[in-house]
Structure prediction request, 540 residues.
Amino acid sequence: MSRSSPLRSKDERRVHAKPRIKQERRSAGTAADQPRYQQIADELIARISAGRYPVGELLPTEMELCKLYGISRSTVREALRRVRDAGLISRRRRTGTKVIAQTPPVIYRQPTNSIRDLLQYADETRIEILSEKRVICDARLAALLECREGHAWLRLDSLRRVPDDPRPICMTTSYVDAGLPDIDKHLESNAGPISAMLERTYGIRIARIEQSIQAIRLGKQEAKLLRADVDSPALRAMRRYYREDGTLIELSDAIHPGDRFTYVTSLVRE
Amino acid sequence: MSRSSPLRSKDERRVHAKPRIKQERRSAGTAADQPRYQQIADELIARISAGRYPVGELLPTEMELCKLYGISRSTVREALRRVRDAGLISRRRRTGTKVIAQTPPVIYRQPTNSIRDLLQYADETRIEILSEKRVICDARLAALLECREGHAWLRLDSLRRVPDDPRPICMTTSYVDAGLPDIDKHLESNAGPISAMLERTYGIRIARIEQSIQAIRLGKQEAKLLRADVDSPALRAMRRYYREDGTLIELSDAIHPGDRFTYVTSLVRE
DNA sequence: CCTAAACGCTTGTCCGGACAATTGGCGAGG
DNA sequence: CCTCGCCAATTGTCCGGACAAGCGTTTAGG
Prediction:
């Protein structure tokens, strides 16, 4: 591909050239009934994938690609946009277009439309608040909540039930930053996930959630609260909710009896 | 906003108008030091969010937006592209631009760059195959593997260890479709995740993964294999791997002793 | 009344051009 | 030798125009 196809003459360009090109492609058997920019994008992706443009190197500049393929800069840019959206290149003014990956990164998306989905509580579950109190971090709690000693949090203990079953499906200990105004009142009147309430009420944007799931053995008190057997297995899901700036805004620690709860996720490839 | 600002005159347009606009915005305190298309996109999103353009209704056509904001069609299209990428509108020729959602869907993405991340096995773990045999589905297995009775699968039992610890971190039972040519040989010589091998070797594209996690009690045999206590809690992670057409291509059922494994996920808001 | 062709509206594709913003690199001056 | 300012290269933004493609709608014909 070292030959540089010359720019088409003005007359050729004046009439929309795409149909002619498509005809060519069709007759050549390539059968690319796609817009030109998509063809270019596919070709660039193929070349990167083949190592023709190695990772770390620069792609030809936009103008060079224009000449190379005999197309306008808009079309080149549209193609490069696709390649960029595929995660293969990054672009910077003056520097140019750098190849950053050889193959599109495999990304599985968790189609979580709400934090509700993450928590997997059906709408009909109900929450029963056991206690709500203000706590000041000692060293241990400060480590858990990633703050300095002395910081104040609101601790909420609760049970969650489904209708018509006296046995709770989980017990949860939640910590919310006590610095939020009227947070105690809002917590009491809140029905759904705390994180959703925080977003709604305070305009906080939860940018990241870290979740860790573990199998544990139920202790005596937990078993009693959950109406389960002592030493029976349980699922412990600890979730940390972070703001955009990386500060922790909420932590919840939920314990589910093993026979009453299964955590299900679905990952869809992008 | 019923007044239709007239298109700027040719002279005004000849000199790039953006700086002037930015100046206006700045002096107005709106402080939108952003490209024009982004401003338009933000405004459209705000209006949709406010119900000014209700869900199900049509947005003004591109040409109408051109006149409304006094900008070119390219800029309008760039703005609409953003709004579409935000998931608020869908566009169709002749029909126009339809509002399909009032607020951007909250999407948390699990930045899983490989199935390795999902499995959370560090690179240094090693697999020890216990047995590998061909099985024919009876009714129970057919239900588990979502196939008809009589279908053949390859069943693989294995342990996974970290170096310098005789206690395995998990035992896994995997089922792979036996219809794949030479699958038994490929399984034996395979080191990493089976799903990755399937993609590599057979060009299979795994489109979806369903994962369910549960807390269970270790049985006698499992405890012995895992060198853990009988009745101690364990995490059971069952994963089903599906192809594009929805057929199951692999199932793996992993059991981790509760004290040796924590399942961690990180969700990042888009 | 029904069907099919023609029409025209709206988005999609592509062009060529102009200037802005950013930034790596070079050269002048200290 | 180092620093600062200028230059030039490259991508970003925006314009105006032309035609294509797809598809409701209308209309002509049966």
Observations:
- The CA atoms of residues 126 and 161 of chain B lie 5 Å apart.
- The longest strand of chain B covers residues 206-217.
- Residues 13-14, 16-18, 35-37, 71-75, 78, 92-95 of chain B lie near DNA strand D (CB under 10 Å from a C1').
